[in-house]
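Q: Is it fine to ask for two folds in a single conversation?
A: Yes, each is treated on its own. Send the first.
Q: Here.
A: Result:
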Amino acid sequence: MSLSVESLFATIVAFAMLTFSFVSYKDFRHPAVLHSLVWSSILFLHSFMPHSLNAAGANVLLVVVGALLSFAAGCLLVTALYQTNANAQIKPSYNLRKYRGFYKVYIAIALLGIPFVFRKAQQIASHGTTGSFMLNLRLGLNHEAFGNQSFGILAYISLIAFAAVYLTALDYKSKNGRLTFLLAIVIACFYVVMSTGRTYFFLVIIPILFVFSFTNPSKMGLKSFILGFVTIIGFFFFIGVVMGKVGENAGEAMSSFSLYLLGGVSAFDVVLSQPYDLQYGSNTLRTFFAILAKIGFEFEPVKLVKPYVYIPQATNVYTVFYPYYLDYGLTYVFATQFGFGVLHTVLYKRALLGQYGFVLAYSLSVYALFIQWFQDQYLSLLTTWVIIGFLLSTPLLLSRKLN
C-alpha cells in the first residue's frame, strides 16, 4: 500500500468538509457533520491504515469528493430555507397507556416468534457441511449452492422486534421503561444473530443512540457517542466471531476488518473502470419491479446478491454509489446525494422540535447515512423502511392526544 497524491488530496478535502460542517452547525448530530465524518474516516483509513486491498484510484476518490460536496449542498439549501430552534424539549402528546400497549404487543409477538424462527434456522442450517451452526446458517441463507434459502414470512418478525426497541427507547425514562427497553434489546439481538447480517446490528443500535441524544441531550453528548460507537465496534466483532466471519487468528481478523470497512471503495473503483450499459432503474427501483413480477408482469428483478470482484480478496459490496451509478451514471449519484442531504436535514430540523415521529425518522435515517461506506440502504431497503414506518406510525397516530 502506497499513499498517492490523489488519496491525500481527497482525505484533506473530506476533513476540510468535516471541519466546515462542525463549525457551521455546531452539532455532531447534524447530517452534514455525520456524512463528512463517515467519509473522511474511510478515506483516512484507506490511505493510512495498513491493508492488502487495492489502492483507491482517482476515479472513486473524485466520486467521493463529489458526493461530499453534493450532500453538503443539500444540507445548506435546507438550512437557508428552514430555520428552527435547536433542542426543543420533547413533551409527548400521546396517551401513554395506548402507546405502551402497542410496544408491549410488539414485544409479545417477537417473543412468541423466537421458537419458530429458531426452528426454521435449524432447518436452513441442516443443509450446511461445516461443524458450525452459525456458519451453516449463513451458507444456507446466502449461497446458491446451499439452496439460497430464507426465513420467509418469519423474517418480518425481526422488524416487529426492532420497532419495539425504538418505541421503548422513547419511553426509557418511565417507571418500568428501562427494564422493558432491555428486554426489547435482548429479543432484537436474537433476531440480529439469526439474520447472520451484521448490518442489522447497526440498524438496531445507531437509531437508539440518536433517539437518546434527542430525548436526553444532557447525558448523550459527544463523549457518550464516542463510547457508544466504540461499544458498537466491539459488539460488531463479537457478532462476527459468533457468525464465523472474522477468521481464526489476529491476521485473518485484521484482513476481515479491512475488507469489510474499506473494501467497498476499492470494489467500486473496479466498477468505475469497466464499461457498462445503463440499467435505467433496475437497481434502485428493484422493489417495484419485484412487486410487478409477483403479480404476474414479465419483469425479472436484479438479484439481491451482487456479483463478486477481486481487490484482490473477493467482495460484493460497493458503497452506496453502486446502484445509482449502474442505473443512470455519475449524474444520478451526485443528484441522489444532494437529495439525501435535503432529506436528512429536513428530518433533523423537525426532530429538533421534539416531535416523536421525526425523532424516530431522523434516528433511523442516520443508519442509512452511516452505512454509505458499505452499501446502499436507502432505496435498496425500501420494503423494510415501509414496514418499519407502518409499525412505528401506527402507535404514534392511534395514541396521539387530540387537542
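Q: Second one now.
A: Result:
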Amino acid sequence: MFQLLYRTAALLILTLVWMMIGSDQIRETFYASPSPQDPIQKEPGTLGTPPTATPFLSPRPSEPTLAVAAVVPGSTPTTKDYTVDSFIADMRTRLRLAPHAAAAAGPAPAPGGWTAWLTAFVAHYDNAKCAEATQIPITIGESTRTITSASICRLVPKGENGQPIPTSIALILTPVEAQYSLSSYVFPDDMMETAKTHVAELYKSGNPEILMESTITGAHTSTTQYAAYTWLEDQWIRVPGLASLPSVRSMRIENAKLILKGGIISSAGAGTWQRERTFTFQIRDSALQLTDVQADQSPTIYHLLQDAVDIESLANWQHAIDRYARVLEHPADKDDYQGYLFQNKQELVEGGKDPVFERRFQEAVRALAWLRLQLLQGDTNRVPGNGIKQEPDLGEFAGLAEVVKPAKNGEEARTAAVKWAQTNPAWVELLNAPFGYANRNWTPTSIAAAIAPVEPSY
C-alpha cells in the first residue's frame, strides 16, 4: 500500500514538472492573441506584447489573428502565404489600429519597445527579419514631446505568380496622445543591407523629416535614392518626388537641403565627358526636387555649356544668363580635348588629333549658347540686360544670328532657329559629337525648346 502511494505521488510530481516546462516553451515560441483577462485587451492602444496569460492554439472568431500552424515545443510557427499588404494589415490588427491609423486609448510605448514587439511579430512570417529601430524625437503641438520609431524590415512575400519575392520595407510607428500612427515605405528592391533612415529637417517646420535611403546596384553603377516623409496632421506623410543619383560619393544635409556629390555612370558607353557634380535637393512646392547643380571643374567650352543648360532647366534664369555669357567669352584656344572621344560620321575620333574638327565643334557650341541667351532675353519678364560684353564670333554658324535677330519676339526667334537648324544639319551633328549617352542629345526642335530637367539618375 505504501509503495502504491509513493509511485502515485512521484507520477504527479513528474506530470506537474512536465506541464511547467512545456508551458514555458509554448509561451516562448507562440505569439497568441490576448485572452479576455489579458490587460492588453482592456488597453487596445498599447503594443500587443506577448501575453502572460496561458496561450491558446486556435484564433477566436471575434478577433482576427495571425494564421499559425500547430505549436510544437521548441518550434516557431510561420506564415508563408502572405503579401506586403496583408503583412501591414495584420500589423494594424495587432496594434489595434483602425483603417486610418487611429487606435483606441492606451499608454504610449516606452522607447525601445517597438523593436522588441516587432521582433516577436515578424517571427511568425517566413524568413522575415527587422533591424533595430531608430528613435526620432518630434514635437506635437506646442509642447508635447514624443518618440517615433522607424525600423527597416526584410520580408519574403508571395508575388503575383506565386513565387517568393524578397522585399524591404520601412515601418514608422508614432504614439499620438492615446493613439498610434503607422506608416510604411516599400523600397524599390530587396535592399535591407543598404537601406538606411536619416533624420533631418528639410521643411523648416520645427519637426524633422525622415529620409529613406536605398541603393540599387546595376551592372556598372550603383544608384542611390532618397524618399522623404514629413509629419503632417498626426501622421507621417510621403513627400512627392525622389532624389536619385548614381555613384553617390558623399551625402550631407544642411540648411534644410539634401546635398549629394557624385553622378558618374561607370559604363564605357556613358562617355568620357562626365564630371562629378554636386546636386542639391529641397522640398519646394510640397515636393522633393532638384534645385541646383554645381560642377567643381568645367575644363572645356562644352562643359560650360552643360552647366548653363542645367541651370536653365531649373528655371534659374539670371544664373543661366551668366553661365551662357561665360560660354561665349571662353577663349577658343584654351581647350585641350586629349582624353575625350568624339563621334564623327559614325566613327570614334580621339580628341586632340583633328584641330579643324574641334574648331568647328567649338563654334557650334558657341552658337547654341548664343541662341539660348537670345531666347532668355526675348522674354522681358525673365531677365534684363544683354549679359555679354560683345557679340561673339559664331564662325561657320553666323547665319543663325542673321535669321534670329530680326525676330520680334521669342516665338518668332524659336521658329526661325528651328528652320535654320533643319536646313543646316551639320550644326546639330556637331552638338551631338561628344561620345556617350550621358550627354544631352540635341535635335533641330530641342535646340530652341524649353530645356528638360536634368536627369541625374539616367
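Q: Anything structural to flag on that second result?
A: Two points. The two ends are 90 Å apart (CA to CA). The longest strand covers residues 144-155.
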